[in-house]
Amino acid sequence: MTRNKLFFLKLVVFILLAIGLNVCLNKVYDHWMYYFRLARYQDKQFEAYPDTLKYLMLGNSHNRVNPEVFGHSFSYMTPKEVYTQTYYKLKYILEKTNKRPENIFLSIDPVNFSPRAEYDLTFDGYWRKYLNYPELAREFNDPEYLLNWVTGNFFSYVGNYKFVYMSVIFRKVDLQQIKNGYVPPRNYKNFAKEPNRDALGFEIATAYLSTYARKSKIGEAKYYCKILALCRQYKINLILLRMPMTDEYLKFARKMVDLDKLDQEILDLTQKHFSDFRVFDYRNYFKGKPEYFFNADHTNPIGAMIISNKIREELEK
Amino acid sequence: MLFNSIGYLFFLPATVFLYYLLPYRWRWLLLLAASYFFYLIWRVEFVLVLISATLVSYYAALKMGQIPDKKQRLKYLVLSIAINIGMLVFLKYLGFFTEIVNQIAGITGSNCVIPYFSILLPIGISFYTFQTIGYTIDVYRGVIKPEKNIGIYALFVSFFPLVLAGPIERGRRLIPQFHVKHDFDPQLFTSGLRLILWGMFKKLVIADRLSIFVQPVFNEPNYFHGIEIGFAIILKMMLVYADFSGYTDIAIGSARLMGFKLSPNFNRPFSAQSIAAFWSRWHISLTSWLRDYVYFSLPFKYHGKTVNWRINLNLLITFVLVGFWHGPYWNFIIFGFLHGAYMVLANISKPILSNLTRISGLIKTPGLLKGLNISATFLLVCSTGFFFGQHPLHDSILMMGNLTDFSQTGKSILFLLKNNDFLLGVVMIFFMLWFEYLIAVKSFASRFLSKPITIRYSAYLFMLFFLLAFGVFSSQKFFYFQF
């Protein structure tokens, strides 16, 4: 065998080994990743949910409204969820299950409307069940969505060491704590005790809002409008929600985007597509109270419970 | 196209495959087409500047090749340099000079305000401009003969592994390689793959991870103090090193896949024992270019004698140019000036320092002396890190002020220890420095290559999957693309 042939044979063996190892890692990650396990457990609970669905909480981890406070409700929030994903999940619920929510809760925080928000899909390993990636690629004229499909199916662990670490830490997580889809907020640290809250507020605000580039203009919001259209089509009431944020987060958020102007733009856009909706604004509800937060932009269990009860009171008025 | 993009993952194998598939006489054409495609992906308009730089230097060199008299050749050299530098100044530095003129006008109370034109900077312009100028100077000096095949010359300027951020190649080293048939060489090919893997590791696992911690400090220095700033500065220099040397490794590795050998750009700069040694190990292709074409062209004599003050002045001029080459910002000028000033100080204090070394007895403990020199050089290099970037100058000064505020050190330590990206980044830096030390000093590569195939494959696979799991895959641009 010539030197070159031998080399190519070795190269093929190496590539096959790499593919085999990748398949194993992807399977293990897909099976054990903490968020995948939570989200799939939510899926199972939702499939088995026998009750009428008065309130359905959708969106990202900011939406910590506890369905148990309301009764006949289900929380389907997942971390880092964007409207594109919410739309496909709601569409799936409405078209492929027999469940029809009467009301949906949807958070309308600045992060949901940042110019890149609709494009930033994460956790494709889970979302591949719901999303139609070729349709998205066509809609946005962006082949990167096909890459999301490839990542979700074959490389879901790539770049995700933090979730590997998290999955190891929470390997014994008690999924039974999830009631009606509600994943209790994390509680292993308290924002009030953080040594440099300014730096953390800045870090989170920058990570999620820097794409506004000091403009107050909302992003494309195409899928937000599609969610509104679905709600209109299926006669679902809409409850929009601004969850509390820490002072440190808001200080930097205001530097990156004119929040008042943005809020108004969101309301104008909503009114254009939907006539009857309610807005609960608790953004500044915990002003000067960092002890109700887990981190700069997430309430802790106590904070989340206070807000949930507050919303219930408002709804009962 | 970025080296760390999915596009490149398809582009490179396809180009390499076609390269070996094609008969030798067509290969340069394939590489030229691939290189222009690679560059065109950024923006079509950028290609016009690349073509202009290529044509101007090609014809100037060709003309110079036809004229035996050096003095006669000079006008073509001046013309070529003027046009190429003119394009560079117009596209990169016009805004900077406009601002200075307007500021002076403001101070003197003049109403004359020059309108500011916002021009998009063609990527890689600083690199290929210097490459073309180096080539024309070499032709002028008679070091090389002009390349007659315009296609080959265009390939020399636009060769895709180096068009975006170097290494700044010399014509005498690279052009002959385009005239040689490269047969497939498994050893060179695998060494190329190893370099690409290592470059990707440095970029995705180290540089992009460090940037998560470093960028916020540089963006909002108000909110960071004491050791947070100190670490951010040190890590910034490490970030730039991991980023740029990672880029260079990928560039050199990509070229090796096709049998080309590019110049090294880094040689463990943080093990340098002086600032001068640092610059002989950091961005070598730029510093050697400036040494050969600028520093040695400056006058060293005064009244017929070589004088020290001229040497030092030339050093300062050259290093201010090094700084200014990076970008039209006062920050970079100060960065270059500081490096030049450190070298001048080292020259001036050389006799005092050697006496001090002798008197203190350090000369008898060379290991300790070496360690002290390396540490001092590292700290001096880091001290210039405040100015290395496009952030406003007042932010650099603010950071220097905040560095001395240790009132919140306890909180800062807790903040750093809670930052996963910071911790992982620091561990990876040590790994990078240690690994590069093994390769350079302990001949790790040859010992590793003599290991059984199972061990080698396991190591490659470990590195590959470590990179995949711990890398940051957000297609961040390479730091030096801004230059």
Give me the secondary-structure topology.
The complex is a heterodimer of chains A (317) and B (483).
Chain A: H1 3-32, H2 34-48, E1 55-58, H3 67-70, E2 73-75, H4 83-96, E3 103-107, H5 124-127, H6 133-140, H7 144-154, H8 161-169, H9 197-209, H10 222-233, E4 237-242, H11 247-256, H12 259-273, E5 277-281, E6 293-295, E7 298-299, H13 301-316
Parallel strand pairs in A: 1-2, 1-3, 3-4, 4-5
Antiparallel strand pairs in A: 6-7
Helix pairs in contact in A: 4-10, 6-7, 9-11
Chain B: H1 6-21, H2 24-40, H3 44-66, H4 70-108, H5 125-141, H6 150-158, H7 171-178, H8 186-219, H9 226-257, H10 275-279, H11 284-293, E1 301-302, E2 305-306, H12 308-326, H13 330-348, H14 350-360, H15 366-383, H16 393-403, H17 409-417, H18 420-441, H19 444-449, H20 453-470
Antiparallel strand pairs in B: 1-2
Helix pairs in contact in B: 1-2, 2-6, 3-4, 3-5, 3-6, 4-5, 6-7, 8-9, 8-18, 8-20, 9-15, 9-16, 12-13
Give the % helix of chain A: 40-55%
What is the rounded distance between the termini of chain B? Answer: 16 Å
Q: What's the average pLDDT of chain B?
A: 88
Find the structural class of chain B using helix and strand composition.
Answer: mainly alpha
Give the helices and strands of chain A as they follow along the chain.
HHEHEHEHHHHHHEHHEEEH
β-strand percent of chain A reads 5-15%
Global Rg of chain B: 24 Å
